[in-house]
Amino acid sequence: MTILEFLKSIYRVLIARFNSTPNDNSTPDGNSRLPSQKPQTELLLSYYDRLSRRWPPIVPPSWDQAGSSPVLGRVVFIFAQDIDELRNETPLDQMSGWTAQLDLFTCDLPSLLRNGLFLTCENVKEQENYVKHSHMEGVGLWYNRCYTVTSSTWSGNVNVCARTVKPIANFRLHHLSPDNVFVATAANHESNSVYSYDVRYPDYKANFMYDDMPLDGLWPWPKKEGEMKGEEVKEDEEVAKGEVKSDEGGDTAWEEEEMDSFSTWGSEDPLVDSWRD
């Protein structure tokens, strides 16, 4: 066999193997997909994580303690206008609403947990508001509306992002609420986790500092019974409906029995950056 014939035989074998190999990059709906494509929520969280690393902590002069740097804790929230879009891994370039990141450094993390986290227009340095273009992996052009926010015990940034300008132009700070928190983390000055919440993993939510003490403001959990999140209220209503048995001409089981009260209870979160005071 000549060298040319040998090369031709190898070529035929390679072609046969290529044609017989199934297309592993196709999705059930027939669309192609890159082997390295990440889940949409992972892309979003990675984007916000990189964004946080670019900005050093905003430390007001009033936080200085006898000339030394204050001990800082860190709080990071991820919000979504429509939580279900993230929960269902909707492609980011098809999302209709905004997502947002609240990234704060605080000189008094225990107080922020005890007294609640509240964010209003009074906390915004309006002269520092702006919008910029950025690039997100797997999405392309991304609009980022940026706020600088401060208070007597915390300071940081709010980043509101969307595929188009309209969602961020219509965004207002009061749109941020416990009901649309996707992820929330808090860490102390040694980067140790103090608080963890992820709507995807309800069994792993935890307050390692104050346990089940109800938290006010933007903290999504735990809440007082009268301040249950929308999805919890909806779930409770569905359970209640199943317990109601109508009796023609008589009282219902709902009227005879009182509703039972209920209570609610991590892994290391990737959003907690490695940083030191």
Automatic annotation (TrEMBL):
Biased composition (Basic and acidic residues): 239-248
Source organism, top-level taxon: Eukaryota
Spans annotated as Disordered: 224-277
Biased amino acid composition, Acidic residues: 249-260
Name the record gives this protein: Uncharacterized protein
Organism from which the protein derives: Fusarium solani (Filamentous fungus)
Phylogenetic classification of the source organism: Eukaryota, Fungi, Dikarya, Ascomycota, Pezizomycotina
